[in-house]
């Protein structure tokens, strides 16, 4: 049988267009990572989550086929509403909402975002979340979170605060959808999730500061001694070497400041208490790995920094 991606591709080509796929995010620890994909076609967008990128893309295509079927387009079975039931990932043994949350189901959705969008669209007051219980030993904690909207409150318990919050939001969202179905019949979940994701990305772009240094997660410990060289282009490297050669040991503090400025780094000083007085500590911010040099006074700390910089930046 053809996959959902193949069926959607063939269907869109017949209609004179092509679906677009976008990898959105990866969440969870490395051994339990989940991947989220977005599929856009015919002016509609859907998202899907799975344990691998390949599965997430297939799930997004399957969700898009269902959306196109709802729009009245000829979707072949079993990917239409009247066809065979869509794939439902297995859950581990154990009943209850907690087992489903701990399993990290592939069909999980951000009910916190859905509930927020529902409240905004229908001008409801904001949902209040509160941690009401924290029980169990350190290796098996259980957290209970309540979600309150006016006089309505739902509580859920899970092994993480985030999962408990999502479960409480899911219960409250489901209750509101069922009891306000006449009012919220035009509320489309996939579109609400897309809006929530767009808002989150806008906030991320606004808050992101390009000048803030971020660690290089791919750097190996064996390459730490090459940390300064790895961050530089040839022009910056030559300027820094020229500054070091010109000033030498005569003005170590000024030489360090000049070389650091050429490298795009800043020099920070601090004092640490010691057995006989204080130690002067010079830090280069921000480097990968972080670098600090100590001495009995600022001159000796600057000399230690100069020695390291000459060794690290010296031509091979």
Topology:
Layout lengths: L3 H11 L5 E8 L6 E8 L2 E7 L2 H18 L26 H7 L7 H11 L6 E8 L6 E8 L2 E7 L2 H19 L9 H19 L19 H4 L3 H14 L4 H12 L2 E9 L2 E9 L5 E5 L2 H16 L3
Antiparallel strand pairs: 1-2, 2-3, 4-5, 5-6, 7-8, 8-9
Helix pairs in contact: 4-5, 4-6, 8-9, 9-10
Task: Let me know the largest β-sheet.
Answer: 3 strands, antiparallel
> Helix and strand succession?
HEEEHHHEEEHHHHHEEEH
- Give the number of helices: 10
| DSSP helix fraction | 40-55%
The overall pLDDT, averaged over residues, is 79
- Radius of gyration of CA atoms, rounded to a whole number: 28 Å
Low-confidence stretches: 84-108
Spatial strand order of the main sheet:
1-2-3
Strand proportion, as a percent range, falls in: 15-25%
- Dominant shape: elongated
Oligomer: single chain
**Helix/strand/pairing category:** alpha+beta
């Amino acid at each position: 049988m053809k996959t959902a991606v193949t069926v959607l591709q063939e269907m869109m080509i017949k209609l004179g267009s092509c679906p677009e796929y976008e990898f959105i995010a990866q969440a969870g620890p490395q051994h339990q990572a989940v991947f989220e994909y977005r599929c856009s076609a015919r002016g509609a967008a859907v998202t899907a989550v799975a344990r691998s990128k390949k599965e997430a893309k297939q799930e997004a295509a399957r969700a898009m086929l269902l959306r196109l079927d709802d729009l009245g387009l000829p979707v072949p079975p079993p990917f239409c509403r009247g066809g065979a039931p869509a794939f439902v990932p297995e859950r581990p043994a154990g009943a209850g909402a907690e087992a489903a949350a701990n399993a990290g189901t592939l069909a999980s959705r951000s009910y916190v975002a859905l509930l927020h969008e529902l409240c905004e669209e229908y001008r409801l007051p904001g949902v209040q979340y509160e941690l009401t219980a924290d029980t169990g030993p350190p290796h098996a904690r259980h957290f209970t979170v309540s979600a309150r909207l006016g006089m309505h409150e739902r509580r859920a318990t899970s092994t993480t605060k985030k999962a408990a919050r999502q479960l409480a939001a899911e219960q409250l969202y489901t209750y509101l959808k069922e009891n306000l179905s006449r009012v919220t019949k035009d509320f489309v979940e996939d579109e609400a999730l897309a809006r929530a994701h767009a808002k989150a990305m806008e906030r991320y772009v606004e808050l992101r500061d390009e000048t803030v240094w971020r660690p290089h997660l791919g750097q190996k410990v064996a390459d730490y001694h090459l940390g300064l060289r790895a961050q530089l282009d040839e022009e910056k490297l030559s300027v820094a070497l020229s500054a070091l050669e010109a000033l030498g040991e005569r003005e170590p503090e000024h030489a360090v400041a000049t070389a650091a400025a050429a490298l795009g780094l800043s020099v920070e000083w601090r004092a640490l208490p010691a057995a006989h007085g204080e130690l002067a500590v010079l830090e280069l911010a921000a480097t990968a790995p972080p670098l600090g040099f100590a001495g009995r006074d600022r001159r000796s700390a600057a000399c230690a920094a100069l020695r390291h910089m000459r060794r690290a930046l010296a031509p091979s």
